[in-house]
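Notes continue from the previous slide.

Worked example: a multi-chain complex. Inputs as given:
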Amino acid sequence: DVKVTQSSRYLVKRTGEKVFLECVQDMDHENMFWYRQDPGLGLRLIYFSYDVKMKEKGDIPEGYSVSREKKERFSLILESASTNQTSMYLCASTVEGFNSPLHFGNGTRLTVT
Amino acid sequence: QKEVEQNSGPLSVPEGAIASLNCTYSDRGSQSFFWYRQYSGKSPELIMFIYSNGDKEDGRFTAQLNKASQYVSLLIRDSQPSDSATYLCAVNGVYNTNAGKSTFGDGTTLTVKP
């Protein structure tokens, strides 16, 4: 079974802090994604990556950056956390190709105060 | 218009009934379609995928796709209380930077009453 592991289940940070959310997958998947999920807004794509050191902006990249130095690890960075970034963050991975379903991590619930 | 729209919930059905969940999408070039189930406080998990027009059955679940109408649905037969969850429709693009990228509907919350 594919395992996608997010480093923290719950995080509480202060406004202005730099925040790192880590995600690791163990199935050698090429593609990795970061989504955020908010009530009434559904799942929205922040950034994705098709390969090591490659990244593409999703629908809502503002205020975020990503890093993919190794194939199995995809990090989401909040450069200066703000209260409107309080959300559930979901990491996912897939094999290469457009027909592949997403395998999600357990999610990180981030609260910015 | 949203790229992926699902019928607004919540949807409530009695145990043993058929639950019908609907989804429409705007990108005519979309090629792959997924249904995920998400229990409260948990992450989404795949329950069905469909790529070709017609019906695809897996146990109590049937996915239906009509590309001409840009419509995909999920039927749950003999609904059980354990089916109570939010169901997310996701659509994948094919071309260039959309390849493999899933766009989600807002979800439909289903409650199955014993």
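Summary box: DSSP finds no helices and twelve strands in chain A. Chain A touches chain B through 27 residues (CB under 8 Å).
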